[in-house]
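Escalation from tier 1.

The customer reports that the assembly of two entities below gives different structure tokens on two consecutive runs. Tier 1 could not reproduce it. I'm attaching the input and our single run for tier 2 to review.
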Amino acid sequence: MTSIPWTDWGQTKPALTGRMESLLRKELSSTTPSTAATLDDARLPESALAPAAVGDLGRIVGPGHVRTDAETRARHAGGQAYAEIVRRRAGDAGAAPDAVVLPGSADEVTAVLRACAEHDVAVVPWGGGTSVVGGLESIRGTHSALIALDLSRLDALLDVDDVSSTATFQPGIRTPAAEEALAAHGLTLGHVPQSFERASLGGYVVTRSAGQASTGYGRIDDLVVGLRMATPVGELVLPAMPGSAAGPDLRRLVLGSEGTLGVVTEVTVRVRRTPAVKEYEGWMAPSWEAGQEAVRRIAQVGPHPDIARLSDADETRVSMAMSSTSGRSRALLSAYLRARHVSEGCLVITGYEGDRADVAYRKSAVRKMLRDAGAVRLGERAGQAWVHGRFSGPYLRDSLLDAGVLAETLETATTWRNLPTLYADVRSALHDSLGRALVGCHISHLYPTGASLYFTALAAAEGGREAEQWARAKRAANDAIVAAGGTVTHHHAVGTAHRDHVGSELSNVGLEALRAVKERLDPLGILNPGKLLPLA
Amino acid sequence: MTSIPWTDWGQTKPALTGRMESLLRKELSSTTPSTAATLDDARLPESALAPAAVGDLGRIVGPGHVRTDAETRARHAGGQAYAEIVRRRAGDAGAAPDAVVLPGSADEVTAVLRACAEHDVAVVPWGGGTSVVGGLESIRGTHSALIALDLSRLDALLDVDDVSSTATFQPGIRTPAAEEALAAHGLTLGHVPQSFERASLGGYVVTRSAGQASTGYGRIDDLVVGLRMATPVGELVLPAMPGSAAGPDLRRLVLGSEGTLGVVTEVTVRVRRTPAVKEYEGWMAPSWEAGQEAVRRIAQVGPHPDIARLSDADETRVSMAMSSTSGRSRALLSAYLRARHVSEGCLVITGYEGDRADVAYRKSAVRKMLRDAGAVRLGERAGQAWVHGRFSGPYLRDSLLDAGVLAETLETATTWRNLPTLYADVRSALHDSLGRALVGCHISHLYPTGASLYFTALAAAEGGREAEQWARAKRAANDAIVAAGGTVTHHHAVGTAHRDHVGSELSNVGLEALRAVKERLDPLGILNPGKLLPLA
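Tier 1 run:
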């Protein structure tokens, strides 16, 4: 991790293809390449953490695990929202916490919370650092200082129960490590968001993440069966229960709590046998509407694939431009699609993971529904192309930022009936705000009652005013989403980005309920201030 | 409804078969028949509701909808727990509310809550009256009086969205009426608990009900997509969202809230196309252990049936004794089972609802898993026998009470690994407490990580001390459940029956979180006092 530049997602940045560059030239205003500041350039304030607090925290976690050095602090200066990245690229690490504290056990987490309460220090629980909604912003509020509570040392698989198909982890484990540990038991969690390589299990839980295979495996909400959470007033312990009617399901109060109520110290999740077969294929739907009708039927009638994605025509165009297919293959594909009247079509990806008979049965039924909707099969190569690029988004963003392109995403969800309106309105809002822009969208999480919409916006970055440029677009999109009855976030959480709009979904009484819990469990308000709940 | 005796579940009571009578004679201590008091015998106190409150409430809902007559009050004197029934059978309607108020709209509910706050009147929200955990007990606490807020006038289907597969109902609708309204649109909710004929949709929501087909259709928790709830501080509005990460899922705070936080006034649920095919069949597993292994595999590997039940040997014996099969058929069946070495076996019922191809696929896969476990197919007649009797439990209880038999049920759930211990411990606790007793058990709700256990206990009633007799057994069972790591309730809610044990599952911090919400939304504590949360 430490060898990755502090501004970047990974060690490598994919080159933009020639076709992608020409698409950007054609569709966006002219762009100015930009370079990212290195760690040596990072400007950050002195740590405001009092020496007495440093001492007390060091006695709890060991002095080596209270880090006040510039590099560690700068690497915790916010998450992965566009505004945070451009800030760091400009050398501004002003958002750095006053210290990074790395507890080694659940008891140490509890003790750290107690010490922070005593010293009036705000705490930002820190998993993989991948929040794209400002969930990791250093908002000190009225407190004397702020620490990032980095959970990366709490990365163990604690228990596997293969009779009950559950596994218990510490919260800081990154997904590749979790999957590797499970694979040794022939098991998998199957939770695969785009942030897969860096995000932590605890982060998934508190942000209500949905993985790329959520259509088959379910959201993280559906996978959590038990939890422990340290709070300033004691430990919340929710033992693994397959089903219960013992009051409201308090796991669901932790899911989505974004570190404002406590720090998750243990998570028991449902796991599955490693699938014997994984098959992915691409299809081309003749239109966005026809594709929507197909995926709706797949979600409601079943059986369904584990992965189902439908890109709109613009996103399909961008995907094609970024694909590594040779010119000759592309020409053949174009001719093939033109002959089948889907040349301006919408890409569909389906994926199946399971045993051979199960995959064959589901694939056959889904194929029929796709054909009924007029979709044309592109085959497994298109599926594999998606698999190959499924985690490339954040890497590509770094390349786009270097090229002077604003690149950001947002997501929403609504009922099937409401989806077309929501789609049109958010798209318009982004186009109206950004001017010349490429705005693509896909549906990637199917439910019987509706689906998510995931937008990607590309525009020429307004050098020096990148954050404001996106903030305007984001506000326009949020307003459009709320007006059209969508959720302000399907799987990225609230953080600061959706704080002012969350009340429209939860209502004032709902916010009051959350405030009441917050005040009871965190009476001094030290936990992740300024996140989730609208500011008073 | 009014023509049903106030002590009974229905207008008819099934006769006990001769074989059932001889089984009871053989296994229980000697019983003394008992008769139930009629409404004319019902003793109840004067209404304590002040005339000013009656007047104000009448101005809100109409004077005819504030009922203080003895019959209406007596018919709201508690729910369907054994202790409540025996109390009514003895002519004791002391648990009657001071009035029954029937609002005609959500706005009237809000106004009633406001008036009750003004007049210091406790409110017990009342749906179908079927709580078996004391959820409808009249616990006035320190308040001046107590009303039952009967929601039966709020029984409309408000909206059907057949694009999104959702339907919006008022909370008081009973399930047969809801299903009839949906059937006109070719739709079904598929939520079918044993209380189906009388229970209300709002009741399902606030008690976290699970229907007999929950393995296929999901619990009510999974079916609710949107909600409105009137509270003393305003309305909680949670619009229908297929998926969201906008903070904790507050629907889950309403689910299981048991009328302690507010009154649900609108519920949007997921619905499905009416299945083309419904098929049920019976199997005999060679043992409880083999049956468990089979249903676990069904739940974890899939595909699964919509209904899957496994009875232990004792429950299988009782089912056989109550079946209407002729002596000759029984003898043939016994010979058939003996020849296949499952004569002391455990009955398995599987049910499939869907389109023809889907049902055929699932049935074939499940049959193979049952055969692998050594189960022998009894066929569709055994499945139909179960269908025929699936709602008969509460009727049969009335007959058993007449015969002087204590008849009560309780349920729990745990992980698959923990299930055998939980089963053995609860069974022992019931036997130890009740002495000579018939204790049967079944698994009827499968999850990938575990399952529920549903116990039925029959014993000779201790005339005049029935409530104490069961309270002892229930306490022993609750203690055993908690000690073995099960939930104190899988789908009957907490009420008063599990109030003292719920803390073991939610932990003190969890209880504090619930108390905080309760105090914020219901600052005067008028909503269903004494339920769900342990008494201070």
